[in-house]
Structures
1.
Amino acid sequence: MPKGLSLHIGLNSVDPDRYDGWNGRLVACENDARDMAAIARANGFSDTLILTRDGTVDNITAQLREAAGQLKSGDILLFTYSGHGGQMPDLTGDADVETDRKDETLVFFDRQFLDDELYKEFQAFDQGVRIVAVLDCCHSGTSIESVQELLSPQALETQFGSSAPQQVEAAARVMPMDKQEQILERDRAFFEDLQRGLKKGNGKPADAVLIGACQDNQLASDGSVNGLFTEKLLKVWDNGGFRGGYREFHRDIQKHMPAIQSPNFYTTGTPSDAFLRQKPFTV
């Protein structure tokens, strides 16, 4: 019988000592994590909940590696994250890398976690393990120019209303551009070494289904109870009443979202058609 393990991360703030005074205060991320853990538990997963202060890189990677040691072909990992998203340029200066290449980041409690780091952890799972990732955070775009446009007063007013320039940190799950640049300059050597090391270890592909809260050039909204994306996900899930596979699940969530925040669906590796057709969160 297949085995399911799930890891649910919700960060309502980050450590200001690690982010030069920025605490990244949000409202609904812990609720998102609790609600996703409840879905997993109801569907036969053994769930682990990590909230705010426990959401460190060491703790989260330790949990992922423990899961990788337990799951075998035919089993499933569900990974959910609710918190801030950020972006970081490629720092290696390799000739074969385009100058505008960016790494998206998950803003963990103690530092930014590169998308390539997450993928490396997924690669450690046995071939045939189904991996599902649900990310309710901002993915800020594919170039510095698009991020600056995204965070302009005009763009923020379009998405969050006239008060948005003063309230963007409360309304959107994005690490502010000035803070991203400040942290990058402070920790440039660390992240350059990290990026170089990740490029050296390609490894086997991970067969994963990922559903993100928005497109690269959009912001993900926080909320008073749940993030906007998680709120609509829960509505579509309908306490387990949803019928369909992962693509249909994404499509139906998208129908409930405003055009300014359109959830993203993508896969890595070669997940099987049978996997994609399964009802979401099926062990």
2.
Amino acid sequence: MEQRYATSPEHVPGMDTAELRGRYLVQDLFAADSINAVYTHHDRVVLVGISPATKPLTLGTYPEIRSEYFFAHREGGIVNVGGAGSITVDGDEFVLAKGACLYIGRGAQAVSFASLDDEGENGPAAFYLVSAPAHTTYPTTLVAPGQGTVRELGDPLTSNRRTLNQYIHENGVKSCQIVMGVTTLHPGSMWNTMPAHTHDRRMEAYLYFDLPPQARVIHIMGEPTETRHLVVGNREAIISPSWSVHSGVGSESYSFVWAMAGENQSFDDMDGFSIADMR
């Protein structure tokens, strides 16, 4: 488990590109037949990529979280960004198509992952897990693609027409902290959020996916008056501190998993900034 320590806005102006990428960009989460984890000290969130390409994989625990098993004191939201797969939680099997979401509550002990259609259009399953500490237990719950709360946002005239599917949130699947969903840009739209915003009460993590090999997203981060950018490829994640804007524009259309943890679960609790005021 790689550790990423928390940063403050004062750190950003002095960072070069390599340090920005080293602190906020998460690459190589998905490697065949591997489980890779990154612990960020922003709200003690853990990002995990699980890739059961040719064999099932079992999620173990890590010394860094000091627990007998991974979900002993944690909850998690999982989105499948690859081909069809299954997750077995304490003997109960859940089948996830691409884009489906599974919430796992505190106390789950035996959790394993498998691919079901390795030769399909989307290849083997690729599970993206975002986990945060939890103080109580909510039931493990599966949501199929398109079965969450669907919101149509943006306008093609401003290149940000997008479909947002909320899975884990205050009016959907119940959790202690995690809020999670998937946003898909419509063809011809490139901006995922503009005007940009912060929510100083919650950190956020983005996983960009469905990007062609040569396409990239320019992810904007930092304080609104002191922005920086990160160039992000397919299945790469961004750690976005609560004080940072998080907006991006792609060279082609794409999708992304967004997940938050922190003070509240209100999706619309945002502090917006006009692009004219950004620097």
3.
Amino acid sequence: MEQRYATAPPQVPSMTTDDLRRNYLVEDLFADDEVRAVYSHHDRVVLVGALPRTGPVTLPAFPELKAERFFDRREAGIVNVGGPGTVTVDGTEHRLAPTACLYIGRGAEDVTFASDDSGTPAAFYLFSAPAHTTYPTVLVEPDAGTVRELGDPLTSNRRTLTQYIHENGVRSCQVVMGVTTLHPGSMWNTMPAHTHERRMEVYLYFGLPEDARVVHLMGEPTETRHLVVADRQAVISPPWSVHSGVGTAAYSFVWAMAGENQAFDDMDPHPAAALR
């Protein structure tokens, strides 16, 4: 488990490209037959990537959590960004098609990830936050969540946003999670750019061709910076940072939040004309 410590706005202007990437970009979360994790001290979220190529892999407790089991004090949402696979929670098998979502509540003991025999391994992305109570484990099939059509083709940001874990959907303590897919011809993923001081957010980009990239905007609205992001890489966005981007090819992304509230529309927009 890698540790990423919290940062403040005054630190960003003096950061080099390498500094920005080291603090905010998670480049290697997925590796064959491994379970990798990053602990962000922004709202104490944990990002996990599991890629079971040749056999099942098990979610460890990780020594940094100082807990007997991963879910002793935590909850998590999981989205499959690879081929079909299964997540087994305390003996119950849940089959996740690509882009399906599984919520696991506090108190789960044994979690194992496996791929089907389809030739394309599953790639499970887990977003976890501390939990104060227990909600039941729930599987949501692709496109079975709350679907919102957003944007406009004239501004190249027509997109389908599917909410899985949210205040009017799958219940959780604080995790909010879903998937956004850009329509053909649209490349901007979030317009207008916005902040929400009450929640941090993480974008995991997926579905990008190997030679394509997303240029992700971050930083304070009046002093933005950018990160160049490849397929299956994640960007940690502190509450004070905008999060928006444009790609060179079609893509999707998992968005996940944790913090003070679960109100999806509780955000502070920053129109393009106001950005610097």
